[in-house]
Amino acid sequence: MSEIATTVNEKVSKGERTRERILAAALELFAEQGFEGATMRGIAERAECSLGLAYRYFRTKEEMVLALYERLVEELATEAKRLPPGSLASRWAAIERADIALLLPHRATLTALFGAGLTPGSPTQVLGEGAAHWRRRIHGVFQEVVAGANDVPKGPIRQQLPTLLYTGHLLLVLFWAQDPTPNQKATADLLAFGEEMLGRMWLALRLPWAAQSAARLGAILEPLFGNPALPPQEGSSTTPPE
Length: 242
Hints:
The protein is mainly alpha-helical. It folds into two domains: 1-59, Homeodomain-like (Arc Repressor Mutant, subunit A, Orthogonal Bundle); 62-225, Tetracycline Repressor, domain 2 (Orthogonal Bundle). It has ten helices and no strands. The protein has helices spanning 3-37, 40-47, 51-57, 61-81, 88-103, 107-117, 132-147, 156-178, 185-205, 208-225. It holds the Pfam family TetR_N.
């Protein structure tokens, strides 16, 4: 490797480490003070860097939240590709358990962000335009779950299943974030119950009216939880040189 290339790589690596340090500081403060309570100045102080340097990597606190969304979504997409073929129920339960394991280290932060995440018009709103790209990516995770299942019937229900599963996923994450039981045992019980019910559901979906009703529900949810074509995501992982 040339001396110039080595120098460039060292700068990129140093820049990535700085970005990670600032993001980690932000997530800590969000958990401690809430999204509104944390300030860019406080984040810079926690990260032991200048305020100007913090702004070089993240123009706003909202960008920090979206960076967390990005990381979690990419990790979940990787987990989805590792799922072995099997029933829809087993694949769904496996990806949900994997997701909870990924979310667990950030539970305090995510809980603190729920207020902003559910506020209409907030840049960090989970169902808002700012998170649309990552929402589509998560929908793609459930497309992967359905595609690898060996018991999914053909027809309109197959096209709508990812939307139905994604809608249920958001409700499950909300339940988990607020679950007061030790080690979120209620969430584990809910997951086990969901896996059991999903396994039984296919008997009912063999009935035309049941399959049509489920497909209709998916179509109703499609505008908010569906998966339009992914637009290019420019510069989402760009790290400025330091």
